[in-house]
Each structure stands twice: as C-alpha cells, then as structure tokens.
Specification:
The complex is a heterodimer of chains A (111) and B (113). By secondary structure, chain A is mainly beta. Chain A has strands at 4-6, 11-14, 19-25, 32-38, 45-50, 54-58, 61-66, 71-76, 85-92, 99-101, 105-110. Chain A has no helices and eleven strands. Classes of the chains: A mainly beta (111), B mainly beta (113). Chain A binds chain B through residues 31-32, 34, 36, 42-46, 49, 51, 88, 90, 92, 96-104, and chain B through 31, 33, 35, 41-43, 45, 48, 50, 55-56, 89, 91, 95, 99-107.
C-alpha cells in the first residue's frame, strides 16, 4: 500500500479557474507536508509547506491540511498556462525523518 | 554555493562500466537524499544521510548501488557494472535542521548504452 497517494491526472483546468490538487497519506504521525512543482525535464521546486491544520496562503497558492482525515490539498487560484506541470506531494513521517513523495498529479491549464 | 549542485549534469556510459555521481548540498544542511526518476515516472527514494550516516538505505535497488557522504557535505552515489535499466535522472536533495524544507539539485541524467 502506497504511503502517499495522488491522482495521476492529467487534471485539465481552464485558464483563470481554480485548480485543486489532493493528496492522502497513511501515517497519522506525519509532521510536515510539502508541495513541489516539477516542469518537464527539470528538478522539483518547493512551492508550499504546511505543518498545522488549516489553510496556509502564499500568493495564488493555498495549502490545506486536515490531519484527522489525513489529507493535504493545494489550491491554485487564477490558474495560468505557466502552472502546467506535475505537482508532487511529500510527507515527512514521524520516524527517521524520511521524506516520502507521492507519484505526482499532472496539471494542464488550457487557454 | 547558494543551492544544491550535482555533477556531471549528463553522463553517457557503456553497459558494465562503473559511474560515480556527485552531490554538493547547501552549506550547513545535515540531511541529504538521493532519488532516481525514470522518464515519465515519479521519484524513487534511494538513500538518506543524516550527517555522514545513512539511517535508511532501503531504496537502493541492488548491491551495485552504494553511496557515501564525508565531512557532512559532499555525497557520491556509485553504480557498479551499470545496466540499461539504470538509465534515469538521479536527483540529490538536502534539508537543514532549522526547518524541514528540502531543496533539490538539477540532477544528473545517466544514459547507459
């Protein structure tokens, strides 16, 4: 059973709309949660991190964490074609500080 | 340096040869990770260092793969007797103690002919 699950997509969203990306994890002791963006042929780039339940906003990005339900989501407002990429969810577990990545969701913003 | 650096950026080798990939983490970062990413696939965890120790080697695919880290800085990933299935991008990332944010290097693209 995978420890971090993401829908592989592709998720197609019209330009200007809100893109919603979801991630679930299996270990209730997980402490920290990250969203990375990866353009084709490039390495992952950290765009958001969240530690506490609730919402965290940074510009057009909002990360949402619900530890009781064991999910973390990323909302992208006013989606732009440049947001088209694969979005990776990552989780630090309570033991050994190992970071586990989901397989990523491919997002496509259509003009 | 300001970020994680990796060398070489590209490596083409013949099947059966050994290769060594290098990672220079962000200065002061105690944790260092190696991942493999095959074309169109997700990140595959290989090994994790805390300081110079590797508490988790569970992702190394076979005994042809090994890694070391010295001076709580540079790390090398060695692949012996390379096989075609080793062709991938090898990514290194580092993380500091002050926060949990992990930063990636640009990767080494390995092609085994």
């Amino acid at each position: 059973q995978k420890e971090v699950e993401q829908n592989s997509g592709p998720l197609s969203v019209p330009e200007g709309a809100i893109a919603s990306l979801n991630c679930t994890y299996s270990d209730r002791g997980s402490q920290s949660f990250f969203w990375y963006r990866q353009y084709s042929g490039k390495s992952p780039e950290l765009i958001m991190f969240i530690y506490s339940n609730g919402d965290k906003e940074d510009g057009r990005f909002t990360a949402q964490l619900n530890k009781a339900s064991q999910y973390v989501s990323l909302l992208i407002r006013d989606s732009q074609p440049s947001d088209s990429a694969t979005y990776l969810c990552a989780v630090i577990y309570s033991s050994a500080s190992k970071i586990i990545f989901g397989s990523g969701t491919r997002l496509s913003i259509r003009p | 340096g300001a970020g994680v650096s990796q060398s070489p950026s590209n490596k083409v080798t013949e099947k059966g040869k050994d290769v060594e990939l290098r990672c220079d983490p962000i200065s002061g970062h105690t944790a260092l990770y190696w991942y493999r990413q095959r074309l169109g696939q997700g990140l595959e965890f290989l090994i994790y260092f805390q300081g110079n120790s590797a508490p988790d080697k569970s992702g190394l695919p076979s005994d042809r793969f090994s890694a070391e880290r010295t001076g709580e800085s540079v790390s090398t990933l060695t692949i012996q007797r390379t096989q075609q299935e080793d062709s991938a991008v090898y990514l290194c990332a580092s993380r500091g103690l002050a926060n949990n944010e992990q930063f990636f290097g640009p990767g080494t693209r390995l092609t085994v002919l």
